[in-house]
Amino acid sequence: xxxxxxxxxxxxxxxxxxxxxxxxxxxxxxxxxxxxxxxxxxxxxxxxxxxxxxxxxxxxxxxxxxxxxxxxxxxxxxxxxxxxxxxxxxxxxxxxxxxxxxxxxxxxxxxxxxxxxxxxxxxxxxxxxxxxxxxxxxxxxxxxxxxxxxxxxxxxxxxxxxxxxxxxxxxxxxxxxxxxxxxxxxxxxxx
Length: 191
Description:
Elements: H1 3-11, H2 16-50, H3 69-84, H4 88-116, H5 129-145, H6 149-175
Helix pairs in contact: 1-2, 2-3, 4-5, 4-6
């Protein structure tokens, strides 16, 4: 159940070396995960807004640091609000739901892109893509079922709310005659 601790005990290291190893693993893992979240998530908002699917406020870039500072601040405030709810277990479970659900979406999208645009340049083609896609989606789906029921319900509710907001904003923009979204031209495919 604790492979690092068992390895240290087998090697004869206990006490302070074991504590330092555990602290290094815990701190290193936390920092690397936090770094990815801080670095990438605001850029998702930036890209979605740049494509016209969120308000243009999220496309503002800091003049000196060239970072999407409005998106960073927005997500920072949202994160603080979630932390202040004092429900870290619920937040962690909901985060796991989101990760697993995003993997499923990404896997399905990659398969769909390969089938819908087989002529795109691909330096590497995965053999057995259909079997791998089905297996991966089923595996991640099973993992989702192992989460707390409240995380599943909350995750589905947030996903539905996100879809309603997404399509509602697209309809709003289209009604004003503004361009919405980008096409396949960004990746070199003919629409």
